[in-house]
Amino acid sequence: MNRRALNQNAAFAMFWIAGAVAVLIMAFVVGYIMLKGLPGITADFFTSSPRGGLSGEGGIYSTIVTTFYMVVVTLAFAVPFGVGAAIYLTEYSGTSESRMVLKLVSVARFGVETLAGVPSIIFGLFGYALFVSALNFGFSILSASMAGACLIIPVIIRTTEEALKAVPTGYREASLALGANRWETIWKVILPSAFRGISTGILLSAGRIVSETAIFFVTLGGSYRVPHSLMSGGRTMALHVYYLAMETRAFDKAMSTAAVLVGLIVLMNLSINMITNRISAKEYK
Amino acid sequence: MTAEIRMRAVDYSLFYGDFKALNSISLDIPTYRISAFIGPSGCGKSTFLRSFNRMNDLIPGVTTSGKVLLDGNDVSKEDVVNLRRKVGMVFQRPNPFPKSIFDNVAYGPRLHGTKNRSDLAVIVERSLKGAALWDEVKDDLGKSGMSLSGGQQQRLCIARAIAVEPEVILMDEPASALDPVATLKIEELMNVLKKNYTIAIVTHNMQQAARVSDYTAFLLTDENRAGNLIEFGPTKQIFTTPSDSRTEDYISGRFG
Questions:
Q1: How many separate domains does chain A show?
Q2: pLDDT tens string for chain A (285 positions)?
Q3: What is the pTM of this model?
Q4: Number of CB pairs, chain A paired with chain B, less than 8 A apart
């Protein structure tokens, strides 16, 4: 074998090892959690709520309910603003003749980029100061979901913007040339074409809410009871893992909750893939 | 020119900011004829074509002077939705929506208020027949428009354009992304379409202009890179006895 082929083989071998190590680490983490967590998962674990106290007795029913509410309420706040802002930024702002608007837009874009990199505890602190204290919403699903919305709005704006930009200019032109106005073009052509990208962004953000802890630690309160209104406090599954691990002796329960959490995230990612595949199959049938 | 005039540009100039892209063009588009705009790349022929349905409105910083008239009325004063309903457009790259063939053709009529499914079905069939695509797709109207071949896609776009029954169809190099066989089909189709529609086509294929058009306009940039109309007249005359030496140089392939 000559030298160049040898170099190539050496490089490929290194990439292969790097890839294998990355996969192995992940498999180890997930495998360890599953190994420790799965044995504790029974039907009872899903249907009973934590009983509180040092022993960490009980299941995770109330934390599943809280997680579900948190995802739904946070998305209800974040999706309209995020998608709306992205539509404005990509579809409307560019055609403005006003320098003022263009300047504002570039500031807004920069803000979005920066916000997307801010540590989540900062949003938590902000949520605590504004929603929990100043607005007096207390430790509640309302406070926590508003703070959570601040975290994911930049993510939704960015993914939606990318999805909108990926829509070919030809679609816009074709629609406008047929006598559609800009809103009709956005509603009937651009949004449906960008649907795959937008929903992927929304599902990713839902994943962020499911796995987020820092923000909810300072806005959601941590009650282990089933929430009965927007003003109730609660704890999400991820938060429950933290409480169990740090404040009780029930490390095995923390592992079981973690296993459920990992399963949920895997399920969400699978559904992202399914959306992507189904829509592209339909498009190119 | 004895034919009736459908559209007319009068002393029409267009600016991108301070840059003059079209310089004082005056020209008549005769009804039920094919008028071709030819000229080298960058001479402004596509920009000029897009002035007829105000597609340049979308570009920030564009201003115009002079007039473009449709049936004697200034298009800049007309409601743009109404104007584009009367002046349809087919683009360089086939651009069907990622929707079914049916929904592609029904898009325009739905916008303009036809909701009834059986009315739409009639329009879709008539338009697809008008675009010589019906026989190839009639059993598969639910299939995505994107799944068709390039030439079929372009005929679908023509069907989509004629579904709103425009008076004029603008074609911006409609065959430049197609193979010779598909190109021929589009050209044959244009000859049929001109019975009912007035057509203006941009092409930088001179043979195409000579083959399909009744009238030809030759555009060229001046020393300031602004597009000027050099000559406009019956195609036969432009290609055999042009009155301007620059036209003769261009059509005989000496530049461009």
A1: 1
A2: 688 999 999 999 999 999 999 999 999 999 999 998 888 888 888 888 888 777 778 888 888 999 999 999 999 999 999 999 999 888 877 666 677 878 888 888 888 888 888 899 999 999 999 998 889 898 999 999 999 999 999 999 999 999 999 999 999 999 999 999 889 999 999 999 998 889 989 998 999 999 998 999 999 888 888 888 888 888 888 998 998 888 888 888 888 899 999 999 888 888 888 877 765 555 544
A3: 0.81
A4: 74
CB-nearest partner of B146 from A96, A174, A283? A283
Complex ipTM tops 0.95: no
CATH number corresponding to B5-98+166-251: 3.40.50.300
- Residue B140 CA to residue B195 CA, distance in Å, equals 28
Q: Is A151 part of any domain?
A: yes
Interface residue ranges in chain A relative to chain B, Cβ cutoff 8 Å = 94-97, 168, 170-171, 173-181, 184, 188-189, 192-193, 282-285
* Residue of A173, A179, A284 with shortest CB distance to B146: A284
Mean pLDDT of each 10-residue bin along chain B, 256 residues long = 80 92 93 94 92 89 92 91 94 93 95 91 94 92 92 95 94 90 91 94 91 94 90 93 90 76
Per the CB < 8 A criterion, the answer to whether B127 and B160 are in contact is yes
Distance from C-alpha of B220 to C-alpha of B43, rounded to nearest angstrom: 5
Residue A40's beta-bridge partner residues? none
Residue A87 is assigned to a structural domain of this protein:
yes
Q: Give residue A77's identity as a one-letter amino acid code.
A: F
Range of the domain at A65: 44-284
Provide the CATH number for the domain around residue A245.
1.10.3720.10
Q: Is residue A4 included in any domain, yes or no?
A: no
Distances B254 to B103, B203, B246 between C-alpha atoms, Å: 46, 18, 9
Contact B57, B223 (CB under 8 A): no
The answer as to whether A29 is a domain residue is no
The DSSP element (H or E) to which B219 belongs, if any, is strand B215-221
* Vertex A85: Cα angle to A84 and A90 (nearest 5): 100
Residues 6+ apart with CB under 8 A from A257: A37, A60, A63, A237, A240, A241, A244
Residues 6+ apart with CB under 8 A from A160: A82, A83, A86, A87, A194, A197, A198, A201
B162 contacts chain A (CB < 8 A): no
Cα A80 to Cα A83, A152, A160, B175, distances in angstroms: 5, 12, 11, 42
| Candidates A98, A167, A178, partner chain B, best to mutate (most B CBs within 10 A) | A178
Chain A environment of B145 (Cβ under 8 Å): none
Cβ atoms of A34 and A26 closer than 8 Å? no
- Note the helical H segments in A212-250: 214-217, 237-247
Domain boundaries along the sequence of chain B: 5-98+166-251
Q: From A56, A35, A53, select the one nearest A45 (Cα to Cα).
A: A56
